Task: structure prediction
Amino acid sequence: MNRFRLGCDIGGTFTDFALLDEATGALHPLKVLSTPDDPSRAVLEGLHGIAERDPRVREELGQLLHATTLAINAVLERRGAPTAVLATQGFRDVLEMRRSRRADVADIFGDPPEPLVPRERRAEIAERIWSDGRILTELDVEAARETVEGLVAEGVQSFAVTLLHSYANKDHEQALAGLIREVAPGAYVSLSSEVLPEAGEYERTSSTVVNAYVQPVMDRYLTRLRDGMDARGFHQPMQLMLSGGGLAAPETAKTFPARMIESGAAAGVMAGEYVRNELGIGSVLIFDMGGTTAKITIVQGGHIPITSELEVGRAYRFRKGTGLPVNVPSVEILEIGAGGGSIAFLNETGSLQIGPRSAGAMPGPICYGRGGTEPTVTDAALVLGYLDPGYFLGGGMSLDVEAARAGIETHIAGPLGISVDEAAWGIHEIVCENMAGAARTYIAEWGGDPSQISLVAFGGAGPIHAYNLARKLGVSQIVLPKNPGILSAVGLLTAPNAYDLARSYRAPLAEVEPGAIEAAFAEMEATARQVLRETGATGEPAVRRTVEMCYVGQELALPVALDGPATAEALREAYFAAYEARFGYAYRNLAVGLVRLRLRAEIPGRSLGEEPARQGPSVQHGSRRVFCPDRRAWADYPVFRRPDLAGNHRSDAASVIEDDGSTFIAGPGAEVVSAPKGNLVIRFRETADAAA
Result:
């Protein structure tokens, strides 16, 4: 009997687990400190802890659903495998030439990150293909063999094959793959015609290089994790979260690890969308704040924004255009350098600054007592009374208040000539203002109205900062999901099995042969269905087709959803409608061209069970001295623990609400109301004693 399902999300500070008992609907959380040197150790430690609590899990666990930061960390920390690039003759330096543009034209010293592959391991291959797929120069097999043998002798473990126009004709790349496997059977091979079969030489090369660079790391990690699970009696199948918000089989993750760059963040968005559906809310701002970063995504009208323009390893971490492009389908996420472990310091001007450096899991904040010496956002929250030092992680870990106060005094309060309390509030206020400023811009870019948006707050640090952030943004209400500290792990339990594909298809619409687009979509759909079959998921997938088009000679391509047959006339009219909706007019006398085809196949996720609501009145667990965010003064707040809240709980007074993974601070301007399925809704009211 497959009674249990388990979601596991590896974060920068903690590895989170959500065990669902489908027989009772109960959801059991667990958090363990992450182990950056070997992330599988934290996963196996968590599995051991879960099995100790309930030995039935070993035999009755149906599946393990997993999200991990391994791929992105391997790039950020430059811990990938020795990789080589095989490029068409004359295109060896695509990675360094980039797009010949600066992210900031005024910053003449702002260099992009170093390529993952040094020039001496970027080799030229004699061959050439036209943009229409015709072969201009045949592949010189013997010269290529000599090149590959030389690279293998230098210790190369993984090859990124990025030949010119391979999206139009992949024969030469496939021939090189066969040659590499013949010369070095144990080598890893990533083909640009499979990783990103689209025009755009730099983006395609960069994406393929990232895939090749992390492929051995991901393969070894998943193999090590599988072996460790088997050794401990966990023989269940595993599925992994892709950046696009869908679950896939380990084989897909091993072949295309670049698709897992935003694995954990995507799981959080899936969780936020599930909560939105549960409560029937129109628009939400999904706010996930963990130990290292805060992530924000807006969902309007049930539409999760998807992008194919990711960047990783930015020279300026939060400045677009300074990183390595990884053009794979991903949930659109705004990342902010604000997490519980973000370090507070005085910059060169003597001003207080928060992040983007983080204390991470090791050594962590000062209050963890693991060797941290620099004050963090979590240390400030503890000093302000927002955390209970004896009930952190449900009492599983004690926090050192005096050490946190001493660290803030030494590094912040003393040099500024202010009290520790004032310094702690300054840290909390600045990090909230940083997040609010970024969120305001993000909401405006998506055409959102904050007064019509609900803030869904989760992550270990999200609920702590949600009240202050919501007041700054002017959102309509806060939604505090059940188990907010592990909600990304919960999101894995609700996520669909899904796979996205894209293909370049550049041609004037008038010149496309009838049936050609349908044939291309049919091939893409067959591939997507095969990937979904590998997950073991059952059911008929829903297939969404999108055509990206532009006026001939124009660069900006607009996506057009394709609901019916892909006839030229239907596509032309759909494009005019999309262009007019975006810009207010359309040039109906101009020729339209195709740019790209996109397809998503998705088998819907499963719903969570529902535990019966607690009967009887809510139980108060004493009170705590807390720094009031509205009054900027200390006050005694009643403390409630989430499991002891009644199903009809309602409170219109300031309060602290704790659970095993996080803490929410409701100021005097809030009304807390129980909502369906264990969620809480916090609405705002203006009172005489609440600050504007």
Notes: The radius of gyration is 26 Å. The first strand starts at residue 4 and ends at 10. Residues 201-231 form the longest helix (31 residues).
